[in-house]
Design brief:
This protein is an alpha+beta fold. It has two domains: 38 residues; 89 residues, no CATH class. 32% of the residues lie in helices and 36% in strands. The chain contains two helices and eight strands; from the N terminus they run ααββββββββ. Strands 1, 2, 3, 4, 5 and 8 form a six-stranded antiparallel sheet that branches. Strands 6-7 form a two-stranded antiparallel ribbon. A hairpin with a 3-residue loop joins β1 and β2. It is elongated. The protein starts with 9 loop residues before the first helix and ends with a strand.
């Protein structure tokens, strides 16, 4: 008899031990499945860019500065000026090689949240190049 006043037969102890092992095993399997299903920050950012390319409003922007991995730009929406940066570290292959030929810049933004914007994505660019004839 235990200190709690409970006594278990050998069969009950084995059943209890198997139940504990089963709960632990299912917890480990569930945790690993949850970890695998999580979206990485890079994938979340790619999805945001894709949504803006597909449904974003387009407007004119002013490119303020081009850094190693950042674009700094500003744009107006309904009389409000927004200044934003976009991390382009994963998009450098889509940047034009001759930045001196940039003529103008377009921005795609979310009409419900105009601060959510991009200038460059995998399948769209707002960096317009002036072509010399």
């Amino acid at each position: 008899m235990s200190s709690l006043g409970l006594s278990f037969t050998a069969a009950e102890q084995v059943t209890l031990a198997l139940a504990v092992v089963l709960v632990v095993l299912l917890s480990v399997i569930g945790y690993r499945a949850w970890k695998r299903s999580r979206i990485t920050p890079e994938e979340r950012e790619r999805m945001r860019r894709d949504a803006l390319v597909a449904a974003g409003k387009m407007g004119d922007a002013t490119l303020i500065e081009i850094g190693d991995d950042l674009l700094l730009y500003s744009y107006d929406v309904r009389g409000i000026e927004y200044t934003a940066t976009q991390d382009i570290a994963l998009l450098k292959q889509y940047m034009p090689s001759d930045l001196s030929a940039l003529a103008s810049v377009s921005v795609k933004y979310d009409a419900r949240n105009p601060a959510n914007s991009i200038v460059l994505a995998e399948h769209w660019t707002g960096l317009r190049i002036h072509k010399l004839s």
